[in-house]
Design goal:
This protein is mostly beta strands. It is built from no helices and 12 strands.
Length: 231
């Protein structure tokens, strides 16, 4: 038996954002509308030397739509005349999408261009309504900067254990990511203009975390990054 799993789709968003400043405090909100689709199928072919079997196809198509909201805050602390500590936090609230799902089980064949077409429909259900729950996620972090240094770190967390698709769980898990980085800019007010390498911005960083997809073998995602801004 040969089994082919295929999937496609995604979510698009239309949004509008606004914010206000209250002295050293910045507040912002985003709201909008999500819409999209997903199309998953499983095609099974029996491999046989003497008999030819049609290919079976089980396919689910879902249209998704719903409103969403996000909010964030940032606070600046002046630690000296040339240095600034900036704190930030944000969240994307749990989102409830409305779904309309079509299921089909059929035998199929392929035309001359390799495109599948239905031969015999075994079962078909159309327009089944349900909900998709997209989990909330949270982020907080900081940056510290002065004339020569920028140092920052972020922590992100998403509660994928709350995810539901038509009241069903999926192979997902809570995930987190830690990111940190720094930039060094050697130039000072009296640095000669012909000292080229003093005006290069040197950067380094890393991130570490786990994926929200739950696999049999869970390995962390991590990387170390190096870079430079060349004037």
């Amino acid at each position: 038996i040969s089994t082919l799993y295929e999937g496609s789709g995604g979510i698009n968003q239309f949004n509008i954002s606004t914010g206000i400043k209250l002295k050293n405090l910045y507040l912002g909100v985003t709201g909008g509308y999500s819409f999209g689709n997903k199309d998953y199928s499983t095609k099974i072919r029996f491999i046989n030397d003497s008999l030819a079997y049609y290919v079976s196809n089980s396919e689910t198509k879902t249209q998704l739509s719903g409103f969403f909201a996000e909010a964030g805050a940032q606070y600046d602390i002046k630690t000296s005349k040339t240095s600034l500590l900036r704190l930030g936090v944000s969240t994307a609230f749990k989102q409830k999408l409305s779904g309309k799902r079509d299921n089909i089980d059929a035998t199929i064949s392929y035309d001359g261009n390799g495109e599948p077409y239905n031969l015999d429909t075994i079962s078909l259900t159309s327009g089944v309504k349900g909900d998709i729950l997209v989990p909330s996620n949270y982020s907080f972090g900081f940056t510290y900067s002065n004339n020569n240094w920028i140092v920052g770190a972020d922590f992100d967390f998403a509660q994928w254990s709350d995810y539901r698709y038509y009241n069903q769980q999926d192979a997902v898990q809570n995930n987190f990511t830690i990111r940190a980085g720094a930039q060094f800019y050697p130039a000072k007010d009296n640095t000669p203009a012909n000292s080229y390498w003093s005006f290069v911005k040197y950067r380094a960083g890393f991130y570490y975390g786990n994926d929200y997809i739950k696999l049999n073998v869970n390995r962390p995602n991590y990387a170390v990054t190096l870079g430079a801004g060349l004037p």
